[in-house]
Amino acid sequence: MARKSGSHADITGPKVREAALKLFARDGYAAVSMRKIAAEVGVQAGALYLYTPDKQSLLYDLMKVHMEELLAAWAEADVNGTPPERLEAFARFHIHYHLDRPDNIFIAYMELRNLEPENFAEIEVLRRRYEQGLIDILEAGNASGDFAVPDPKLAAMAAISMLNGVTTWFRDEGRLSRETVETIYWDMLRKSVAA
Amino acid sequence: MARKSGSHADITGPKVREAALKLFARDGYAAVSMRKIAAEVGVQAGALYLYTPDKQSLLYDLMKVHMEELLAAWAEADVNGTPPERLEAFARFHIHYHLDRPDNIFIAYMELRNLEPENFAEIEVLRRRYEQGLIDILEAGNASGDFAVPDPKLAAMAAISMLNGVTTWFRDEGRLSRETVETIYWDMLRKSVAA
DNA sequence: GTCTATAACCCGATAGAC
DNA sequence: GTCTATCGGGTTATAGAC
């Protein structure tokens, strides 16, 4: 059966999500109207509601998918090895993954406050799961004597803050290559937790 | 001459700025209406325009005053000493200053995108001046042999990102004291740039 | 200096035509 | 599936009374 002419659900749906991600990241959730998202997609505002029940769900879905994909990607990238090896894998993975998805990390860290409470709680669980992965590595390194981290929870927060910062200033056309930046950050992180 | 009854310019003016800072930090610039600011102050929306030409100026002024006070406070807190001594002063100053003003740093880093271009450019100059202070310390440390920082500019960004992160999770009622947090962060920073 | 009222406009979300 | 039109309400900023 030929698809009905003018039916683009499988094209428009993803486009709505992409447009929302781009605009939320650029201007902030509260500053982006459904009309602006629609204009970016190339449809009228009313048509968006075929793909999302409301604006809040759009934000929530973007964050949830991002966090789930992040967790899955790290599970894939994690290595069997010594704590220093795993920490290097984490640092390089985190930078690499986020430099490829600057919009995602931007909304994941900046738009948490615009989630309604029950949505916030769900995303927070995923975020903490990711952080816990790093905490586990730091604790293993303390146990093995490779690291001297007085408070692994605090150190994990500090490390993630540092690594996240790269997305705020890195530009591909800039002075330094991704590989260089990745290596320098890893070197700083390595030294900061070393025994 | 007795002041005219109902004249509270010197009280209401600062209250408007305080209310705007509090609400911008809590809910985000775009999500805060002039009516909400007025309600927080205890006046009607129209009265705000006696103290600010518009909402944008309110944000710009808050950021500008914050950055100027930050620069002045660091100029005061900076020490004459070796690069490691100056770096410690910077780390402790930065954490201490920002933990005392969580709302200020929040808007200074999160609401940059809501500044109109010419305002953004002015704030950016001040922000870069502050960062340059740290870059200078790192370069001096490289020269003296105390530090081994391959790219002082990048390292400064990384360090500030790491230190800023503390404001997103630190709570006075929490597990760790300010002094403890300050010392652990300083220790990580010290090691991360050490020769 | 602050108020009320209002101009001019934008918002999220829905209804119904096609 | 997408459109136009619209409801009910919010927005910034201003005008004029007191």
Task: Characterise the protein shown here.
2 copies of one chain form a homodimer. Chain A has 195 residues and is mainly alpha-helical. Chain A folds into 2 domains: 7-52, Orthogonal Bundle (Arc Repressor Mutant, subunit A), CATH 1.10.10.60; 56-193, Orthogonal Bundle (Tetracycline Repressor, domain 2). In chain A, 71% of the residues lie in helices and 0% in strands. The first copy, chain A, contains 8 helices and no strands. Chain A has helices at residues 9-27, 34-41, 55-77, 83-99, 102-110, 117-144, 152-169, 178-193. In chain A, helix 1 (9-27) packs across helix 5 (102-110), helix 3 (55-77) packs across helix 5 and helix 4 (83-99) runs antiparallel to helix 8 (178-193). The radius of gyration of chain A is 20 Å and the shape is elongated. At the A-B interface, helix 7 and helix 8 of A face helix 7 and helix 8 of B. The structure holds a DNA duplex (18 and 18 nucleotides).
Task: Describe this protein with a few key phrases.
homodimer, 0% strand, Tetracycline Repressor, domain 2, 2 domains, 8 helices, Arc Repressor Mutant, subunit A, 71% helix, mainly alpha, 195 residues, DNA-binding
- Biggest interface in this structure? A-B, 34 and 35 residues
Number of helices of chain A: 8
Question: Taking all residues together, what is the mean pLDDT of chain A?
Answer: 95
Oligomer: homodimer
Radius of gyration of chain A: 20 Å
Shape descriptor of chain A: elongated
Low-confidence stretches of chain A: 1-5
* Straight-line distance between termini of chain A: 67 Å
% residues in beta strands of chain A: under 5%
* Count of extended strands of chain A: 0
Largest sheet of chain A: none
Under the CATH scheme, the architecture of the largest domain in chain A is Orthogonal Bundle
Order of helices and strands of chain A: HHHHHHHH
Give the full name of the CATH homologous superfamily of the largest domain in chain A.
Tetracycline Repressor, domain 2
SS content category of chain A: mainly alpha
